[in-house]
Each structure stands twice: as structure tokens, then as C-alpha cells.
Amino acid sequence: MIVIVGLGGGIGAVFRYALGNYVNKRAKTNFPFGTFVINILGSFILGLINHLYLDKSISTTLWLFIGVGILGGFTTFSTFGYEAILLLLAKKYKAALSYIILSTIISICGAYIGFHIFR
Q1: Residue 57 phi, psi (nearest 5)
Q2: From CA 59, how far away is CA 90, in angstroms rounded?
Q3: CA 2, CA 9: separation in Å to the nearest integer?
Q4: pTM
Q5: Taking phi first (over 0 means left), then psi (-120 to 50 degrees means alpha), and beta for anything else, what does residue 5 get?
Q6: Contact 103, 40 (CB under 8 A)
Q7: What is the torsional sign of CA 45, 75, 39, 17?
Q8: How many CB atoms lie within 10 A of CB 80?
Q9: Fewer CB under 10 Å: which end of the chain, C or N?
């Protein structure tokens, strides 16, 4: 099972890198939209996948591959923390506060919606 998680994690990391670059190039701002979008999207998908797993609609192997592996490699709390610190160090307090609050609230809402979308 650890190989399944590792393979998923590698795939998720590649997706994170590609999507983060894509979003950041188009955003043309100092706000870290790439990580913002990635964490919200990942939270939504994780809520959805978790619901499917708990509902016995997907196997444990698929849960480990997607939920733990791909989404674990895709979402990134460490980058979120780092980017928040960079905004604070640049004295962009409003952007930092917005990033922290919006990322947290919208990611939780995304997970909630993903979990309840098929109920």
C-alpha cells in the first residue's frame, strides 16, 4: 500500500507544480493564487473522495491512491504558511490576512461541499 500512496503523491506533486505555475502566470499579482486555488480544489476533491470512501463506493486502495497520495502531494499547507509569511515580511498585511482567512474558510467550505455533494 505504501507504493500506491507514493505513486499518488508523486502524481499530485506534479499536478500541483503545473497548476500553480499556470494560475500564477495568469494572475499577474503578488497574491499567491496558485496555492490558493490548489488548496481549495484539493479540499473539495478530498471531501468528495472521503465521502465516496466512507460510503463504500470506492476501495481502500483507491482511497489511499487518490485521497492520501494524489491529494496529499497536490495540496500544500507548508507553501501556504511560507507564502503568508512572505506577504507579512513584505508588509502586505491586508493581502496576508485575506490570504490566511480566505484560504482557511474557503478550503473548509470546499471540503464540506465535496463531502455533501451527493447526499
Answers
A1: -85, -20
A2: 46
A3: 10
A4: 0.93
A5: alpha
A6: yes
A7: negative
A8: 20
A9: C
